[in-house]
Amino acid sequence: MNYNAEDQYQNMVRAYEALRALATDVGRTAVIGDHAAGDAAKSFFIACYHLKDWLKKDSRIKRPNDVEDFISKSHALSLAADLCNSLKHAGLNKTPRSGMHLDQINDAYSLDISASTEPGFIKMTRNPSDGDTITISSSNRMGRPVATAKVVFTIGGEKHEVLDVAIQCVKDWDAFLAAQGIQFSKS
């Protein structure tokens, strides 16, 4: 079978787009306790971190160890590695690349309720976990409410919004690829 690194890169980009979509508007119904944002975050970090395995086997990468070195030098990719491996192994068995262990993962919901919000827009499927946040605001705008579902992880006592780390991960991979003379399409 042909394992094309560009396929894995595009898988990462699609996972990023799914994560971004939830972080900007979840759609017609906001479900507090839904696992979509957490699942999207996990999918992104798995695709993002494991891009390294595909790149190390790509013939255009002259020194495969450069991939690992780059991850270790990138704060965002180091966080991605630690998050991915923490989730995969139920905690880290090795020294974390970022130098810090995963403390917790939380959901952060934001609801902007418009003047014309219909009943039933918000549903609660579970009680929030310790550290989860729900922010509700009201605006005079018309139309359906806007809700976001984000994931915040804490590593070494520092909080990181998943989408911010994901944005930087994609930028860092793009910089690595550019330095190698490689450009993958994002579709």
At a glance:
The protein is α/β, with parallel strands linked by helices and 187 residues long.
Q: What radius of gyration results from the CA coordinates?
A: 18 Å
Helical residue percent band? 40-55%
Q: Would you list the SSEs in sequence order as H and E?
A: HEHHHEEEEEH
Supply the number of helical segments. 5
- What coarse outline follows from CA principal-axis ratios? globular
Low-confidence stretches: none
Strand tally: 6
- Mean pLDDT over all positions: 83
Main β-sheet, spatial strand arrangement: 4-2-5-6
- Going by helix content, strand content and strand pairing, the class is alpha/beta
> How far is the N terminus from the C terminus?
22 Å
* Number of domain units: 1
What proportion of the residues form beta strands (DSSP E)? 15-25%
Major sheet description? 4 strands, mixed
